Amino acid sequence: MEHGAGGGVPAKADVFVIFGITGDLARVMTFRSLYRLEGRGLLHCPIVGVAVDDWTVEQLVERARDSIVGTGEQLDEDVFGRLAARLSYVQGDFGEAATYERVGKAISAAETPVFYLEIPPFLFGRVVQGLAEAGLTSHARVVVEKPFGHDLASARALAAELHRYIDESQLLRIDHYLGKMGTEEIIHVRFANSMLEPIWNRNYVASVQITMAEDFGVEDRGHFYDPVGALRDVVVNHLMQVVSMCAMEAPARGEPETIKDAQVSLLRAIKEADPAEYVRGQYDGYRSIAGVAPDSTTETYAALRLDIENWRWAGVPFFIRTGKRLPVTQTELRLVFKHPPRLGFRAFERQMEPNQLVVKLDPSTGIRLIVEAHRADGPGSIELDMEFEAEGGEGPTPYEVLLHAAMVGEMTRFTRQDAVEETWRVMQPLLDAPPPVHPYAPGSWGPKEAEALVAGHGGWRGPWIVA
After folding, report:
1. Is 238 labeled as catalytic in the residue annotation?
2. pLDDT tens digits, residue range 403-460?
3. Catalytic residue among 176, 238, 374, 457
4. What is the 3-state secondary structure (H, E, C) of the chain?
């Protein structure tokens, strides 16, 4: 498999073409991200929208305005005016060759186009074929949205279809978790702090817990969610990215391919997940949602254990849980360290909470260290917290980061095909032999059966909630 040329500086996009610009993702994410990039002076090319809707440019500009305001942004007319001036529109059916001819005319002066496919995955192959047959992909990058298949076989089939027309080095797979400040901070906090890296291993860490909790439900997304479920929706992509960043070895250099090689090497060391250590849950009331089958066994909650067979992590369980309609919305990585030896001091007679390091990823980013101290009221745990926004200000949103990375060719932010295949390999046994789904009450922490996964490891901890 080709992974692209490792050297050289990627060419910046001289046009950004969005297929599906009239859809929901553009409405809730893309227009806002482009507007914020414009406001920060990071947008430098025309934006061409492509969709089947018979729209004028004026209608597209109005949709952009409504979308940006609808996300809660305070609209600066000067910034919006600059963004609007970049917009143009091509109408056409994605199945017709004439559409790609019109796209070619609209971007005829471009040498390094970036095509962003905000469309269902079953259309990826057809659109990339149309672009290639129109002679538009020679020096292009193509950005696609998850899901990257629904199991190992389909992920391979999708890649094979796309690789008929473009090289792997041209293909950028968006996972919005790779745009979060916190996921980058995982790598930074590990390798930029000599006091942490020596203890970031099986000699000191007892377990690792990754929690992605959401206090909202499926709501009006029943038709999408019911065939997918929590495992496919967030574990196989978002949370496995967190696992790889937490557990990978230090890359020899900072170039994209070297970093990706380190992540893939880690993923290859993860044992295939065991269905006996996988708990599925479904919140009460889920089956009454429009688009959900009345007898659905789709999980809205997933908890599982992973084990990594390498020198750094052998024997350290990685526990993952995610669910909808839980008490809070919060995503975090938590390292739970081993207990110190019980020395002959009175302060050691109580059961001490183990040291913990928490990296909070969502909805805000921060870091917490839980340590033992002798406080004024006696021995106990203390928490040393820092919200990154308090120190460095508000960071860019994930899609700002990712769209800008696509435009400038920052490939570290995107997932490579061998990593996609390894994550599906790990999860495939859970898809092949899923355990029964257990009910749980909305507002709870999921089915009680999930407690058995961590029974010998102090139970589920956290999450860290800032009041």
Report:
1. yes
2. 999 999 988 889 899 999 999 999 999 999 999 999 999 999 999 999 999 999 999 9
3. 238
4. CCCCCCCCCCCCCCEEEEECCCCHHHHHHHHHHHHHHHHCCCCCCCEEEEECCCCCHHHHHHHHHHHHHHCCCCCCHHHHHHHHHHEEEEECCCCCHHHHHHHHHHCCCCCCEEEEECCCHHHHHHHHHHHHHCCCCCCCEEEEECCCCCCHHHHHHHHHHHHCCCCHHHEEEECHHHHCHHHHHHHHHHHCCCCCHHHCCCCCEEEEEEEEECCCCCCCCHHHHCCCHHHHHHHHHHHHHHHHHHHCCCCCCCCHHHHHHHHHHHHHHECCCCHHHEEEEEECCHHHCCCCCCCCCCCCEEEEEECECCCCCCCCCEEEEEECCCCCCEEEEEEEECCCCCCCCHHHCCCCCCCEEEEEEECCCEEEEEEEEEECCEEEEEEEEEEHHHHHCCCCCHHHHHHHHHHHCCHHHCECHHHHHHHHHHHHHHHHCCCCEEEECCCCCCCHHHHHHHHHHCCCCCCCCCC
